[in-house]
Amino acid sequence: MMREYKRYKEYKDSGISWIGEIPKNWILSKIKYEYTFFTGFTPPSGNDSYYDIDGYDWLNISDIKNKYIDEAESKISEKAIKEYRPKISKKNSLVFSFKLSIGKTAILKSNIYTNEALATFEKNKENNIRYLYYIAPIFIPENAKENIYGAKILNQRLINDALLLKPSKQEQRKIASFLDQKTAEIDEIINKKESLIDYLEKYKKSVITEAVTKGKLGDKYINEEGELVDKIEMKDSGVEWIGEIPEYWDLSKMKFLTEVKDGTHDTPEYIIKNNNSIPLITSKHIEADKIKFESANHISHEDYKMINQRSNVKKHDVLMPMIGTIGNPVIVNNNKKFSIKNLALFKTEHNSILAKWIYYYLKSEIFDKQVKILNRGGVQSFLSLDVLRNLEIAEMSNKIKSIVTKYLEQKTSQIDKLINKTKQSIEKNKEYKKSLIFEAVTGKIDLRDYELEGGEELAEHNNSSETERERISAVD
To answer: pLDDT digit string (tens) for 353-391?
Structure first.
């Protein structure tokens, strides 16, 4: 219960365990008694005549990113409209995803066509569509069934039979206005914290870059004797995107520091995990500087021995995805047997200092810049072994590498702690938002006399433009 809000004076048992008690005057109804809805359509894929970049807006689940929607990224042709004669979803209706990503919800601010995975609930005089926006993602998915694969599914019958709590329309409007304001406040906090994380990630990358290219540790530089000083002699590296480096450093290529290999290109047969099976690690198993062995597929020991001839992973080697999101390296910290696929392998021959130097280099801005240049485009694609082997990287004594990497371990650890603390705060705010919505739409808090900041009229338009104000007014 939200202690800062009062409760209704009288409650009754809803008869539904997960709902609990509801206000005495509220009605436990079903979707089919309160709203009419219809589903969209999807023309056959592979037929270009049904799709047209200059055609009609056609809403997909992926387009549902905000509370209000007025356009879609996908377009369908006039031919598709004429052949299928779909019903158009009208402005001020609510769309709800009931396939794949169940529960994504938005209110339309323009007439639009939708695909078959979206249900459109039409506005009516008896209920408030903004109240439905908050209650539908909670109540409708509760009526979903599991298919033989354990996935949640919904269909039109299950949606129609989903429960719905119905306070008076005036209360619905009050609840929606309250949640509009409060969730906007929470979202603003979350957005600021997400911006802080983005800043900290960029700051961390700049700290790493300064250290591995300039020998700059905080506001000091490291000299050839390993001492921190205010200034050192610099020289032109001869590489535009690196610029100057310390005078006593050299510029080398990755292939002269380490052997760069990759994993299997042929996926062996997966088997059930057993005492003799071996994990097959791919990019999706590398996360937050860790290798997630628990979620990996397994292969036979025979297949492992065959793959091992190509890439024998050892402790202190460095791994990095070659496909997809490049630049997420990890240092192998144990002698566990495993195979790799679509991962670059930087061999270090048990040299932990070299491993850390390569690891931090792969996390630097210089790595990103080189990849974009050598890979002719973006980081989000594929990196060849040739590109990785020819990466320019600074070289110096192990003594200097050790001092620099120890500094980076300490500094990045401090930044990561702040990032993780901020992420935890975001999750708490998301949980609070979720709890607040549930308490409001199930009547656990009485909002009939709640004084919204600035009054109900202002609260409804909190953080809204004039266009949004008109939109909310029309929805009501």
So the answer is: 999 999 999 999 999 888 887 766 444 567 889 989 999
Amino acid at 371: V
Question: Which residues contact residue 472 at a Cβ distance below 8 angstroms, ignoring those fewer than 6 apart?
Answer: 130, 180, 460, 461, 464
Residue 189 lies in a domain: no
DSSP letter at 228 equals: E
User: How does pLDDT run across 2-57, given as a tens digit for each residue?
Assistant: 567 899 999 999 999 999 999 999 999 999 999 999 999 999 887 889 999 889 99
The structural domain count of the chain equals 2
* Full DSSP string of 111-160: -BEE-TTEEEEPP-SSS-HHHHHHHHHHHGGGG-EE-TTS-EE--HHHHH
- Residue 196 within any structural domain of the chain: no
Report d(CA 84, CA 237) in Å as an integer.
64
User: Does some domain include residue 231?
Assistant: no
CA distance 267 to 251: 37
What is the DSSP code (8-state) at residue 67? S
Do 154 and 260 lie in a common domain? no
Helix (H, G, I), strand (E, B) or coil at 94: strand
Look at residue 37 and give its three-state secondary structure: strand
Give 421's contacts (C-beta < 8 A, 6+ positions apart).
none
Residue 171: both structure tokens together: 């209360």
What pLDDT was estimated at residue 45?
81
Mean pLDDT of the chain: 90
Higher-scoring residue by pLDDT: 146, 245: 245
In a domain, 264, yes or no: yes
How many whole angstroms separate alpha carbon 383 and alpha carbon 404?
27
Rounded to an integer, what distance in angstroms lies between the CA atom of residue 127 and that of residue 67? 18
Phi, psi at 332, each rounded to 5°: -70, 120
The pLDDT value recorded for residue 288 is 83
Percent of the chain with pLDDT over 70: 92
- pTM equals 0.84
In this prediction, residue 306 carries a pLDDT of 81
What pairing do the DSSP bridges indicate for beta strands 318-321 and 330-331? antiparallel
Tokens (6 digits) for 358: 């390569």
Helices (H) and strands (E) in the chain, counts: 13, 30
Give yes or no: residues 132 and 35 share one domain: yes
Weakest-pLDDT range from 93-97, 301-305, 329-333: 301-305
Exposed, middle or buried: residue 88 (CB in 10 Å: 0-12, 13-18, 19+)? middle
Who's near 396: CB < 8 A, 6+ residues apart?
246, 248, 249, 250
- Host domain of residue 329: 250-395
